[in-house]
Structures are given as structure tokens and as C-alpha cells.
Amino acid sequence: MPYPSTREIVNKAWKMGIVVPAYNVPYLPMLEPIVRALRDSGSFGLIQVARLETVKFKAESFTRIAEEYGKFKDPNFTRLHLDHVPVIDEDGLSIDYVEEITGAMKAGYESVMVDGSRLPFEENVAATRKVVEAAKRFNVPVEGELGAVIGHEAGPMPPYEELFSSGKGFTDPREASEFVKRSNVDWLSVAIGNFHGAVAPGRRDDKKIAARLNIEHLKKINAVAGVPLVLHGGSGIQKECLREAFKNGIAKINVGTNIRQPYERGSAESAEKGGEMVYAAMLDVIKNELGVEGTAGKLLG
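^ thats the sequence. predicted structure below, dont judge the formating
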């Protein structure tokens, strides 16, 4: 029998109240130990790369990640996802996002993300809809983003408590409902207190704040969006918040900092040490942070 598609797996996770983690690969040698840890723990996960990881790190290109993934993939435990391709990037530059995303789908990516969150609402809807239309040809699900999940930009971040208490940048539930209906997006990335790990030079080693999530706000979004929700910036969020989020619509969570920083520390000593540290960090994330050991059988069974 054919393996279930990424769309089917994430939809099943959403209905079951469990989560599909998506692990970022900013360095090619990280891919093998990530897949090995998923297999050894019986956990299902997406292998993903964002555009900025090909520009600001050493992922090289979407094609190179796809080639490396082809060496180690295991359809019982993994699928390949394209993370953030922004319409306007973190440096304020316009990106040929439809061409880049289409190229990735041709290279074998099984789900994709377009990030129009820096655009006004109407422009975000239009940009996301363009990618949804392009993805129909490949039968690939599309993730969009509404709200301001900050952290990738250069410069200091506003105080976290100020951001959280004010709700500044949080996804508006009414807009979320309209956005999904008008764009036909499959999954929606939301802002509810989460933020990205720093990628600007000089800040990459920063320890992330132990963020929390506004679960009541998430419940309002989940009640009206009608699609699986996505949490970016998954590293460092308080465990109790994560567990509640998975019960209330978060079906996919992105993990970057918690596995990237160990690789960077280890690889400074040797390539082998880098791989060992990624593997150990993955098992800690799977078993202790997210509690997703053994999910492959549940989601693909």
C-alpha cells in the first residue's frame, strides 16, 4: 500500500491532538543524525530547510538538501518540507517566491511554506493564494503565516514580557478565518507568544527565552480557522504550554535552535562530534521536550 501523504499525516495529527515536529537543517551533516534519531525513537518528523538557511548558513540550496535527504530518508518516519520562503525577507528584500517554491516542489519537496507575514493582510492573502494555485499541480499542501513571529531580524528584540502582555503581533482570530477561506491554505502558522531563534551574526549562540503561549488566544483561532495550525520557534517554549497547544490545534511545530546550537558547538571540535550532539539533542527534544516518542506508528498506522 502507498505511504500516506504529508497532508494526510498532519491532518490526522490535528484530529488526534498530537504534533508533527519539523526539524530545520541549516548544515547538511545534521540531516543523517536527525533521521537516525527519528527512526530509533519511533517518532515521525518533517525534515525542513528555510530559505535563510541556504543564504545565512550552510544548507547550500533547496536542491542540495533534497539530494542529501534522498540518501537517508525513511518514509516510515520522515517527509521533506520547505520552510520559510518569504515574500519580503528579514533584510527587507523582495523574493521571487513563486519561482523558488515551484523549483523546490519540482525537486521533490512534499509540502511547502510561503511567508507573507510582513505584507499587509490583502497582499498576504494574494501571495499565499498564488502559491496554493501553483502547488495544485504537484498535489502539495501549503503552509501560510498570519501574525508576526519575530526573531529572525537583525537588531535587538523588544522585551518579551512587553510583547506577550500587549499581544502585539498576535494572529487575529477573525483575520485567520478570512485568510484561510480566501487563500485556501492548508496549514496556518500563528503568533501566540512564540518567536524565532536568532539568526543574525553575533546572536546565534543566544539562549532563547523560555517563552510561553497564550492558550486562550490559540483556542479562539482554532475554533474558526478550520485547518491545522503551526507553531514556529518551538525551541525553548515551556512544556506545559506545548502540551496544551497540541490539544488545541497545533499540529506542526518547528524545531531549530535546540538542535542547531549543539551541532555548532560539536562541529567546532569535529564533524563526528557535531553529529553525535545533534543525535543526543534530537532524542532529548523527542522524549523530554515534545513527548513524541512512538508517534510514527500512530500517524502512519
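The chain has 13 helices and eight strands.
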